[in-house]
Amino acid sequence: MSKQLMRLNKHFSIILLLIFLSCKKENHPNQENFRIAFISDVHLLDVRGTLEGIGYSGIDNPKTGEKALIRTMEAQLHSTRLFNENYFAFKEALDDVVKRGIKLVALPGDFSDDGQPINVRGLNKILNEYTKKHGITFFITTGNHDPTSPFGEEAGKKDFMGPQGQRQPIMSSEGLHKPQSGELPVLISEDIKEMGYEEIVNELSQHGFFPMESYTYWETPFSKYSYDTYSFSEIKKNSSLENRTYQITEGSTPQPDVSYLVEPVEGLWLVAIDANVYVPKEDGLHFHGASIGYNQVIEYKKHLVDWVARIVQKAKKHGKEVVAFSHYPMIDFNDGASSTMKQLFGDRALQAHRIPKKEVAQLFADAGLQIHIGGHMHINDSGIITTEKGNTLANIQAPSLAAYQPAYKILEKKTGPFWDVKTVVLDKVKNYDEFFELYDREHNHLTQSKSSNIWNKDVLEAEDYLDFTDFHLQELVRLRFLPSEWPEKLKSLLLENSGMDLLVLSHLKSKIIPEAFKTTEAWQTASKEAQEQLSSSNLSKTDFTHWTGLDWITDFYRLRSGDELAQQSIPDNRISTYRLIIQNLANNDTDNLTQLKEFGQIFEYQLHSEPSGNFTIDLQKKMLIPHKTISD
Q1: What is the share, in percent, of the chain residues with pLDDT greater than 90?
Q2: Residue 18 and residue 13: Cα distance in Å, rounded?
Q3: How far is Cα 499 from Cα 503, in angstroms, rounded to an integer?
Q4: Where is the Calcineurin-like phosphoesterase domain positioned along the sequence (predicted)?
């Protein structure tokens, strides 16, 4: 062979090798073992912080000898989120992430307690610490609590804890709050105002909101460049918020949209969707809150659907895996029970106004999106849909660290069309009881003040953090949900009867007469039928007498919050008793039991949900496949 031919063959071989490597990089990157932790709804209050300007760090804590800037237990037990202990839960979650060797962490919104400077600054300090010490890269998207309005506003909280357990109001400016009886004089600090987009994202600028040189790729819905022409130095110049705005309506004030796409490691595209929508009020100066989510996105921010479609098309071209996350769910989270819930509880109860329309999932699925992680609802849940066009979208709801059950999600890419989801429950949290002596002081203050409906002191007997969040839920049911969400007739029926009474009721075929129906002949007949049913089942009378209607209501909320995880905390025989009553009610046409029957239907729906603990997303079979163990 001539030297010239040998040189040609050599050059040809090199060209083929370069083409092969190029194709491998573009279309077949190493896409296994991406692992991303999703820690949602942290609602961080910097309990170790100091209010700038006035140097206030809270009250003395005799247990630690340090200051504690905390809200009262009364405030916590009337809220769907904890304010204080979740500070420690967040650090516990991050420590667990470190132990597992995970380097990518996403925060799907509500990372702060209303976007105050002190809390956002405290969050940034923690994130920077874990980045520096452990090499973790964080990616954040905004929730309705950060910011609470697009441009910020004066605000404050009236229920920080004072030194003797009384309420200490702290406001960002004068005149926002007039002290009530038993409250301390108002403290004024701008550090407690609620910041807008600009201040928040600038403080957290190194955590996804802006391009970083370490990212392989970064863009926004407003970017004009392509993947092939990406240049960090050029993009950095055009990434300011003034270049990332949209209008709710023609002529309205342009608002920031801080959505972004980032490629933190080769082959993975993380899409952080800013699904906050702040509709202007009639005065043109203020805005409605952004808690509704995607139902308003598809009305006012349709550019996000188009952007996602463009991302998916480019991802296919360049061989990237796409995972989106935002603060809000894309799929109904009530396991098929939403219509019955609205019928029984109303359109506003149980956060019904936040249920995404079917159109939401259909639009994003047909745009090509297959995996989305949401938060906001403080629930552990999963959903999967396939559209008429054959496109599949899986929505994974990450629970809150500040509520029952406190947990975070790990998403891991496996071979082919498979992604694994692992749920890590934070049952043990160091320092979760650090403020219990202060809460005891608060309870004594409320008792001496003869306050009405005081919170149950048993919450301070919690054995661990999971137990503490369960107590929080129980008190939340008693102090908030029952008074505000439940129909009076159904509430009375459940609260005034034992499990055995409810079993007998499920057999009752006549009209219920308040306070007297247990003495009627119809009741005696129903009681006899209940006894006969027990004798032919695996259940005993004791199984029913060990719980009350309040227990059933509380278990309903446990299932609603924890889904598959919560079933571990409810005894199997109690679930069996519920199911027997539900079965009886389904066959009972008595008008007076209609509400109880609807409640039973809702409860049964919750027992038949998609896997939500540990499971595999199979995009080929278009289903969620449960693992043998449901939590880790």
Answers
A1: 86
A2: 9
A3: 6
A4: 34-154
